[in-house]
Amino acid sequence: MRHGLQLAGLGGAAIAAALAIFATAASASPSTTPPWDQWTSEAPAYAQNLVVDDDGAECANAQYTDIQAAVDDDAAAPPALRKNIQVCPGTYSHVDVPVGLDDLKITSTTHWAATITPDGNNDVVDINANNVKLRNFTISGPGSGGCGTINAGVFVKSGATGVLIKNNHVTHIRDEPFSGCQNGIGVIVGRASVGETGSATVTGNVIDDFQKGGVVVSNTGSNGVITGNKVTGQGPTDVIAQNGIQISFGSTGSAKGNTVYGNIYTPQDTVSTGILLYQPGDSVVVQQNNLINGGLPSNDVGVYAYQSNSVSIQGNRANLSSWDGIDLDTVDGGSVSGNLTQQNEELGVGLFATTNSSISGGTANRNGTVSKPGAGLFADSGSSGNTFSGNSAKQNFQYDCQDDSTGGGTSGTANTWTGNTGTTSSPAGLCNPPTGAAAKTDAPRFAPRTVAPLAG
Fold first, then answer.
1. Where does 38-195 show beta strands of DSSP type E?
2. SS3 21
3. What is the DSSP letter of 449?
4. How far apart, in whole angstroms, are the C-alpha atoms of residue 451 and residue 449?
5. What predicted TM-score, i.e. pTM, was given to this entire model?
6. pLDDT tens-digit readout, 242-266
7. What CATH fold (topology level) applies to the domain 228-239+255-456?
């Protein structure tokens, strides 16, 4: 049990074995290993937790000055004697939770007052065990120098499952100075390129000043539940194309209730994204996220789904993007419903080579500009079998509804359009009332955007 030591259930042999383990540990490192009486229920101050304080100023009862020393002692203890770790305000170095140290809770006693730094390591925190909970810390870079000096703030790997990363401030996860190298991820769960998997809930964190990505879930077998985080990119930059949240390369999961903005790549030959789904497993959910900033723009594209079959994108606000609100690219069986996409510089919702998907109940207003003529709702020539229904598209420039496909669907397109409200349509009849309609030949053409995921 983690909450207090229970000797009553242990036989004499088990107690003797435990005593021998800690006697050996004490002789090896007497300055950091607690005496046996501090690990028994007879010492209430130590019965529940191991306490860490870097200078002893905040917590007089601390047994450790370093988090890793507490982790190592906990890992050496018999599972029945293991404890949680409470960390008092201070600055601490890299933490590595090893395989087998399951169910460990590491908590900063004061919100964001305990800071963990990489101290020359590639990651700030590595989690290799199941059901580990990391809460209330500041997890901070930057790396020790230029390109590639820091990989991640938190890396969940070694097949670890049930990990909780909650209420932390993950910041400065970047090279020094900020570079265009493809590293610097706030939180990464699994990674295909190095054969790692993991599963974690990432919730209630503030993640900012990262280099490549805020939260990344990667690899078949990995899963991420990403909820209620605030993820802020660098803002307009010509250094690197960032992504706020990425679910990719066979991984599954959801992004719900996050606020994501500040991902803008100024060369505009490649787009940064608020949320990027790049070849994930089926049925990823993106729901009720705010992809909007009071300033302009918010992201290059709010949500971009590439080869993301059966994706559900529901109830999001994707506004004020320098390109598009929501794009589906080579998606089959997707659902885009109840989203607000407005004042994006080109498209509200765009479909590219997408099939058998539903776009319903959304509002797409005031998308497109004179310099970037766009559309509220758009399907390209390679999209077919999709249904646009019950959407409202108004005051978009150049068209509220535009479909470049050809087939046996509505108005000679390859898709079905029904019950959509709008004023301008190409071809006529996609949205009603069909006033101000124009021929297809008068409409601007759009191509899929080039995105830049964290590779692997």
1. 49-52, 84-87, 90-92, 95-97, 105-108, 114-116, 123-127, 133-135, 138-140, 152-156, 160-166, 169-171, 185-189
2. helix
3. P
4. 6
5. 0.90
6. 999 999 999 999 999 999 999 999 9
7. Pectate Lyase C-like (2.160.20)
